[in-house]
Amino acid sequence: MKNIDKDFLLQLDAKIVEFLVKDRQFIFEKMGKHLEVDEKQNRRDLVTEVDRGNQAHIIEALSQLLPDAKILAEESENDLTDAKGLMWVIDPIDGTMNFVKQREDFAVMIALYEDGKPLLGYIYDVMRDVLLHGGPGIGVVYKNQDVINPPANLALEESLIGLSGPMLVNNAYHFQDVEKRTLGARVIGSAGIEFIRVLLGKQIGYVSSLKPWDFAAGNALAAVFGLKVGYVDGEAINVLKSGVVLVATKKAYSAIMSIVK
Amino acid sequence: MKNIDKDFLLQLDAKIVEFLVKDRQFIFEKMGKHLEVDEKQNRRDLVTEVDRGNQAHIIEALSQLLPDAKILAEESENDLTDAKGLMWVIDPIDGTMNFVKQREDFAVMIALYEDGKPLLGYIYDVMRDVLLHGGPGIGVVYKNQDVINPPANLALEESLIGLSGPMLVNNAYHFQDVEKRTLGARVIGSAGIEFIRVLLGKQIGYVSSLKPWDFAAGNALAAVFGLKVGYVDGEAINVLKSGVVLVATKKAYSAIMSIVK
């Protein structure tokens, strides 16, 4: 096993960024053509040949960088029972519905965890060419090449909030009451794009029912910024566990948790 | 009064596009600095110095092009009682909340109407640099320099729909039932950006409580494409009248109207 220190992770980060810039072109070439689209669990849960092709593309690249790390990826059978050691978490196309219907507001996400703790996270807004990367392993968050500062610790009342459409419609966990306290709800349809908005201070939080690959990268980046991430039932994040995940500024997180409990 | 024929309108269109490209730089220069923000009707209804400054900038330019036309603009006292003759309808920054909080997903909108009928419409997604322009007066819609085709006449079940957050939360006009038939809701917070998505075939429709400057440009462009636009109570569009406005593909429009009535 390699020595996973900060210098090693900085070098790894540079290689992953280099890969993702090329991966963007890979996606562009595929998305110009007719897409083969299949339904997964239901008609709102889609997968395309680009999800599958890009996942294989990403796994090939990451496996060369850290051959011994486990892999947890959206478009694979996932039967990992523990998070010990190094683990890649991969969402080749987050927001597949947007990818298929809108050709925007989708993201590529990669995270590296060690013993269940985040080291590195990557969220790439492919169409806007905004790549947030970094994590606790290197102690910073970059927007493309630039180190960025944490967002202001705004209160619930001071900005917008991102929500999943079904949670808003169904008033799940009283999130309609939460929404009324904010300056308004936005429903974008991609966890990656929503995490970017929170990390850049464009909204005070985001909540949705998420799988590990939906939140792993955002959780890594949020940790650097002191943003709070957890399940709305109060449990701490477990990178193998799906659930309703909330990310928010410290002030908004407390306020939201006192409403939803 | 000038002869408002197609040749004249094509020349006018070229001049307005030329102006809007410069206007984008005008906005960029202003938005980099600290914004002076005021509340209008309530804390979710904002106006900034850029809304006011850009409105003055637009009115100055348009008044030179057609000195006799009336003006209906968001950030002015509006007491027009009839739509006779030529009239500009202007929204200097549509989606001011997004402009203030997110610095994206806002639009500049301009429309030219004659005797209440649309001639030209302009929706400029400033951050993505996507300008949709055209209208019944010239019989085409351009995306920047390119003539574009109408979107496919998709059914409600075949794509996403754009909604206002409050309408979704409050199940206004049974729009939660509408949402369940679609592939999902998106809440973007700018009528201009939502109209662009409908015009480009990225969603089957959009509904929100709108003022004339929110729908005038989109209505002009939708008319070229055979998209349906109307108030959800069944009335035809009146460019002086605010209301809950629906734009959708023909198929989706019929399906939605049978649910909301």
TrEMBL record, chains A, B:
InterPro entries: Inositol_monoP_metal-BS, Inositol_monophosphatase-like. One of its GO terms (molecular function) is inositol monophosphate 1-phosphatase activity. It comes from the Bacteria. Mg(2+) 1 binds at E74, D91, D94, D214. One of its GO terms (biological process) is inositol metabolic process. Its cofactor is Mg(2+). Mg(2+) 2 binds at I93. PROSITE patterns: IMP_1 (PS00629). Keywords: Hydrolase, Magnesium, Metal-binding. This is Inositol monophosphatase family protein. It comes from Pediococcus pentosaceus.
